[in-house]
Amino acid sequence: MSENLSLLVTMNRSWINASQISDVYEKCVEDFLEYAKRNGAAINGRYYYPCVNCVNEKRLDIELIREHVLCDGFLKNYTTWT
Ligand SMILES: [Zn+2]
């Protein structure tokens, strides 16, 4: 994990426990996706993503990542990014 992402996760830890249907949660998911697009290590436009069900073991494109983290939930203590 990059130092920047580590900082981001630490700073935003509170929102991870927010209701998944809240506006705050959606906004933070969008922020996360933006961050991923700028800083994530993509392969063919696909990134690892911290969905609670997929546990950061697969890669998807941004649109599918949005669905996963919105519907399944955000992995609370993920530590890997690339
Ligand atoms: Zn998932």
Walk me through this protein's architecture.
The chain is mostly helical and 82 residues long. The chain has 4 helices and 2 strands. The model has no long low-confidence stretch (mean pLDDT 75). It has one domain (3-71). A two-stranded antiparallel sheet has the order 1-2. The protein binds zinc ion (ZN). Zinc ion is lined by residues 51, 53-54, 68, 72.
SSE order and pairing:
Elements: H1 3-11, H2 13-16, H3 23-39, E1 47-48, E2 59-60, H4 62-71
Antiparallel strand pairs: 1-2
The structure holds zinc ion.
Distinctive features:
49% helix, binds zinc ion, 5% strand, globular, mainly alpha, 82 residues, two-stranded antiparallel ribbon, single chain
The largest sheet is: 2 strands, antiparallel
Helix and strand string, N-terminal first?
HHHEEH
Specify the number of helices.
Answer: 4
Helix content range = 40-55%
| Strands ordered across the widest β-sheet | 1-2
The overall number of domains is 1
Radius of gyration: 11 Å
Offer a quick outline of the entry.
The chain has 4 helices and 2 strands, in the order αααββα.
